Amino acid sequence: MTRLPAAALFDLDGVLIDTEGLYTDIWSEIEHAHPTGIDNFAIKIKGSTLKRILTTYYPDADEQAEIIAMLNEREEKMLYTLFEGVEAFLADLKRHNIPAAIVTSSNAPKMERLFGMISGLRDFFAAVITDKDVSRSKPDPECYLTAAARLGVAIEDCIVFEDSFSGLESGRAAGAHVVALATTNSRESLEGKADLIIDNFCGTGIEKLAGQL
What we know:
Layout: E1 7-10, H1 20-33, H2 41-44, H3 50-57, H4 61-76, H5 86-95, E2 100-103, H6 108-117, E3 127-129, H7 142-151, E4 158-162, H8 165-174, E5 177-181, H9 187-190, E6 196-198, H10 206-210
Parallel strand pairs: 1-2, 1-4, 2-3, 4-5, 5-6
């Protein structure tokens, strides 16, 4: 980028908080109890809203209720931790007066638990887009277009930070600059799917990062 971005848009799990491994385990357990017959099911659904997962793979209402109960029970016990370097990077955005948004397929109760667990995290974000704010899951670009509109900026002037293939596709389809975090998938598998690939936010600030795009 020739200038700093108008906004930074962050996926949540696997980008800001270190939970993707936990969700892989949870959905692998759910798939074992309620088999879909789909290879790597827990990986395939990353980035999808719960509503889309249920309607696509579990149309039976009773089965949906059982899955929701399993997921809620495990999420309520989940400990949320920020990846190393995230807080410093968010603080750097603040210093440069660049607004940030979380763009996630998670629901509002999970976000309430997250913000209650990590003090001060909510203060870094001008907007939080959750499953209730969109009608179409990633890889559809709706969520990132919604976030940019909420912040009052042009999507092409934004940087999207993602870790999943569906999320990266969503950011690119929206027209944003896209940075891939190699937290969930390998660098090799992310090649060609983002404008820039980084391992984490350690040792970088928004000026340095934007200069690489």
